[in-house]
Amino acid sequence: MLTSAQAQDRAADIVARAVAAGVDAADAVFAADASNDISVRLGKLEDVGRSESEDLGLRVFIGQRSASVSTSDLSPAALDALVERAVAMAREAPEDQWAGLAPEARLMRGTAPLLDIDDQEEVSPATLRDMAMRAEEAALAVAGVTNSEGGGASASRSVWALATSHGFAGSYSTSAYGLSASVIAGEGGGMQRDYGFHSARHRSRLESPEDVGKRAGERAVARLNPGRIESASMPVVYDPRVGAGLLGHLTSAIAGQAITRRTSFLLDSLGAKVFADGVTISDDPHRPHGLRSRPFDGEGLPVSPCDIINNGVLETWLLDSASARQLGLEPTGHAARGVGGAPGVTTSNLYMHAGHVPVETLIGDIQRGVYVIELIGQGVNPVTGDYSRGAAGFLIEDGRITRPVAEFTIAGNLKDMFLNLTPATDLEFRYGTNVPTVRIDGMTVAGG
Description:
It comes from Sphingomonas olei. By secondary structure, this protein is an alpha+beta fold.
């Protein structure tokens, strides 16, 4: 695979070609990836996958008209044709008064921060197979597990580069490793499935296959013989692996395009209290080994840790340059860019800070409630904030998690849910977006 410097040269070269062709401005993205994936089932090798890709995306501007094109053919003739096609498309495109490159004065200068997100280790397919086997074996060894959907292990390396016609060129590489196991407990119509998964930038930071597999097996067995729950208003407690989705609804609502289109339930909430006192939500692109760490954003702007929610108050929108111009504000360093199309926005290592209440205390005064470990469906209205999701989990009775329950719905409005949310102390950084266990009072639970 190309080095970061070579990737940066590829992006800069296509921008130079576009400028030579007469465009007013241009930027380009080069992305390359190489990965190995191994899956096993019931102790036998099931699939071996190897993928490699190199893609180049070019965006050009002629006045206020723009066009984006991409290719995986990197031959000189193909690149010349790509530039010619982009210029022809831009001449025919409608004008957009907000489109353009990021402000030149805001571009990242100097040395990029050291994020340690590429361990440069090579892992053989045989090693990945052994890891997958061990994860599945550990899951099958849990009493009550009766079948397997498989174990898997993966390793990949990627490089990403951005170049612009107004003076930015940068690149970075990442490594990624994953381990998983998915198993079934029980027999016949009473079977239950669950999984274990872990990913890391460094192989040395990956959990052991035995831990991943054991967790998968124990989760599946714990779900056996689920009951039903009556319909009522009650507290709902989110397990961290599903609670992170709540932050996804938040970031969608404060993304620049949602605000400019006025399609957000948090419209006009900037500077207002949208979460309970004490709740802080931060974005940290500089987190060492972070699954979403990056040295600059998708437009070449510097990135830095920031509070999106500070003590319950919404501190910022998530803005790329186009949405910032439309709102009369400055871009926030959250631009995201693929090889095709214009930039959007994204967060990096987003997390809700740990609260001050242990999980046992958070649950301890709930007379009757539910602990949710799985959410089903996409019943969220981004305009009104109305929220309704199918769910499975465990009943909470007299301050204790008791028996499994399934086939129920939890519902509310995200505005009310955010204001009634309490985080526990058990924050762990396991995913790209992380939250501790959270409790939301006053939700509607509809049983089957």
